[in-house]
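Input sequence (898 aa), recorded before submission:
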Amino acid sequence: MGLTGRRLEVDRIATLAVLPRESAMVVVGDPGSGRSSVLDAVSNRVSLPVVRVGVNGSESHWPLAGVTSLFTALDDPRATAHIAHLLQGTAPEDRQTPGLAAAHDFLDAVHALTLPPTLVLIDDLDRMDVESQELIAFVASRLAGTALRVVATVRTVPSDGPLAALPMLRIEPLPADEALVLARAMAPEEANDGVLAVLAQETGGNPGALQEQLAVLSREQLNGSEPLVLPLRPTPTTEAIAALALGSVAGRDLDVLARLALVPVAKTAGWDRDELDDLADAGLTSVKGQTVSVRDPLVRSALYWRMPARDRRAAHTELAAASAESDPRATAWHRSFVDDVPDVTALLRAARSYVVDGNAQAAIVLTERALHIGGGTEDEHVALLGVTEALLANRLLGFAARYLAAIRPFRTMADETRRLRLEYSVQYLSGDAVHADELLVPVDPEDAAEADAVGGLLAMVACFRAEAWELDHARDLLARAELLRRSASEHTREITTTARELIAAVDGTLPADTELHDGLSTATLLGMSDPALLLLAHALSIAERYRSARRVFALVLARGQEAMPVWTEAARYLSAENEVRSGNFRQALRAIDVWEAGSSVVERLREPSRAIAIAWRHFAEGRSPEALEVVDRCLAQRSTNRLWGATAKLHALRGRVLLLDGRVEEAAASLEAADAIGRSLRNPAVLRHLGDLVEAYTRLDRIDDARTIAARLAADHHARPSRWGALVLARSLALVADDTTRDTARRRALELFQPHDSQFERARTLAALAAVGSPTDRPRLGAAAAAAYEAAGLRRPLATPAATVAMPSFGSPTSLRSGPVLSAAMPGTPRSAPDASAVLTSLTAEERAVVQKVTEGYRNREIASSLFMSQRTVELRLTQIYRKVGARSRSHLVALLT
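Predicted structure, token format:
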């Protein structure tokens, strides 16, 4: 079984392997939890020799069979002799209990082996014979001098057993996030993501049970065309886990637990509270407020299907009557098993109520039941539409898509508009293109309700088209919505207005802030809906009004529980994107962390939005290979029905990371792909790839191609001017300038930057000029670029470019202290003076650049000129440096460092 998650467990075991002293650990995990996979990962991770000991359960009745397997696996020629000695030294009548003498003989035998430091991995130690378990446990607690590190996996550790005294590591069930990732990796490609989320949930995060369920379900169930029967029918792993969990439960407690297994969740009213408390204390049930449920879905599955069908029906009848007054949702569930004509709409209304209350697990169980017994009537589909709307509002996109596929088109325009709104929203949030061919049907403008619903839908799809850079189509849709404006509600008009603003922002023609919504007054903004605020904030971000966008996003996030989770999720992501676009990496990293922490994999908006954000975080933190892996994986999953704009963004990001890592030819290929996709987009500030492409061509000595792209950038920028475009155009022109204008162009590219401009773009300009500059200019420009990168918030070390280096290396951590002046020793330095390398590690990149100039004899004015900062800034940096290193003066600082 492949390993998903378990990073912390593998890290702990790998740490034990490299400790200087011998030690042992017992890894405890349920059947199917992946104990063997963890050992596989550890054996591939550590550098020590690894000895893997497998256990044959059929030999468990042979005394010392496990010990012989261990000695056989150890690579020592004397092991065979030790085995014979142990077997001869243990009389048959004594083999039930090895005894202290036999244990010491075994310990002496292990000490006598001449082994290098070795990691011994024993899988399923509890399946060995009892004598071997006791001997190995005895030795594991006395490993000093043996050169062995021992890790053994077991299912349980009895408190009075021989392993109880050893350090223990518990393998817990996978979190829902990781279980879903594993399900996607195991399942066939056509499997429905919502179905996989259900399986990940109903198998309790157990990899073995998940794998078995994927093997027994039909193809139709996996692709979502047939409903699942919940609880899932038990598999061997399910039965094994249930046997362990229920081993000490009997009598009345077992009867109550079996009846609880008949319902996904029940109200505690009507149940014996003392019995519920006893089951909760035993870890078998979960009591939350006034509700109770079986804690482990695998235990529930085993109990449910152990009960004969006749007994289940009788129990459902009894529980339906008992819960009729106190728990109508449970009543709807129970009655679906006993009524000749079940009330499917009541079951679906109960499911929607569970979603609203935050209990999606119970909602999914009821919905699958409704699909299983329903007749597919119009009323049932309307009720299912309500469940789907609630799921999407709670950002459960996979579940929403799964049940949306089961709803056929409606006859009434109101319900059909609701369905289409859901369908288009799911397509867009999933990263698919929204074709919206259904919107070609005529609309009666005299029917106010119909006109309002269709007008809002047209405005929504216009936004989706704008995001795909299909501006002409977006304008056509918006024009049709305008024809219905007279009958539209205030909310629909608001969405239509902000949709128009988004289109203008993508086109580079968004009016000034003073012309938007009463000058973006707080009173006006507070009266707007969440989706309208998000559209406005996104438009402001695209138009490079980052501070205004930040303020509007904050209004949505400040609404807290009042906002639907789907809008909060979108605000978190778009806020992170706003900070990335602004070049404020510190704030961007915080925003991405908040977004990631605020939702699980099941709830997150799917690729590529998440891929771009996570790749940016890896890149900013110095993990370029991880960034490229995220982008490449997302690109590999995209197809021609996906949003072209998102695909272009992925290629552009990949090209930028490769370019800054010095892989220029690969970068050019990715940037060319982005350019081919986004060629129709005339606003260069949206995709932001042309400046990178000019730089890549210049570094590949393709000057003619670079000048062609620079000319395109200039034309697009003059038609749709922006601050980002001005800065990047100046950099591009400096890179392609000829000998007569090169110095002037490069000086202008640097002088154009203002204090409020992006430090990241300033660093990019300095680094690009360093790459094509003379050998004497490269260290100076590289040091200034490193300082600007750090000011932008990149959490990664940077190197000053040497004469043979084209760009600062982003691939491996390096240090600025590469000059011989800083590392030279001076005989007269006092013994107590700090080492130069220790001093430099306490300084920022910008401070190290200043120190470099000080040791070279530069004066403050010269330092300011060479590092492109003011003289006042140099003086402030020197004051900070003196305080950090304990220097009293400039000469003392030089003495400390030389």
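Checked by second reader. Residues 797-835 have pLDDT under 50 and may be disordered.
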